[in-house]
Amino acid sequence: MQHSDVKEIAIVSPVAHGQSKDSAKWDVVNGMKVAVAFVNTDIEQARKKVLGVTDVSCFERYGVKGPQASQWLASRGITIPVNPNTWTYCDQKTLVLRLGSSEFLIEDQLDGSACNKLASDTARVAGVYKVPRADAAFILSGNEVLNLFSELCSLDLREKSLGDKDVVMTQVAGISATVLRQTIGNEPVYRVWCDGTYGSYLWEVLTEIAVELGGGAVGIAKY
C-alpha cells in the first residue's frame, strides 16, 4: 500500500462526500484520498466484529473484455477463473473476477501490482478491449452482515447459497452492484462494488444500518 502526503494532488474517493460527517482521518493510498480511520483502534476493531463498513475504492483495478481477453490475461501471468461469474486469486495479492464469459475485473489487494503492469501494456491486440473502471468498493465484515443484506438485497447471500468463488450481480439498496465472499486475514468478509457515482449514497445507507446493528465505519488502515 503506497502512502503519501495528503497535500499532494490526488483523486478523491467516490465515497468521500458521504463521509463528510464521519470525522474521518484521511491519507492518500494508491493516489486516492481515502478515509484510513474514523475512531480509535479498539472501537474500530469492535465494529469489524459486529458490522464494519470500509471504503476500499483506492484499490487498483483494471477492466478488460473481448473474445481474446482471457488468452491475453493468461499470457501476462493472470490466473483466469474457469467459469463465468466466478473469481479467483492471482498470487494471493490480486482478485480476478470473471463477469460473464468474456469480461474481467482485476483488482489488486494491498501490495498487489498486477493492475499497473497490465495498464502499462499499451499494445493494441485484436479482440481485447480495455474497460474503464470507476468503482466505489467496500469491505463488509462482522456477524451482522447478513442481517444488513436482508434489508438491502433480495438475493440470499448466505454461505450455503453464495459459493466460495461465486460472483453475483444484484441490487443493493436499489443500486446495481457486484458482490462476493472473500477471506482477508482469516476473516470472512463480503466485497461490494458499484458505480462510483453512487458511492456516497451507498456508504450512507450501509453505515446507517451498520450503526443500528451495533457496528459502523471502519478505516482502511484496519486492513
Automatic annotation (TrEMBL):
<dbReference type="InterPro" id="IPR027266">
    <property type="entry name" value="TrmE/GcvT-like"/>
</dbReference>
<dbReference type="InterPro" id="IPR006222">
    <property type="entry name" value="GCVT_N"/>
</dbReference>
<feature type="domain" description="GCVT N-terminal">
    <location>
        <begin position="21"/>
        <end position="220"/>
    </location>
</feature>
<dbReference type="Pfam" id="PF01571">
    <property type="entry name" value="GCV_T"/>
</dbReference>
<protein>
    <submittedName>
        <fullName>Sarcosine oxidase, gamma subunit family</fullName>
    </submittedName>
</protein>
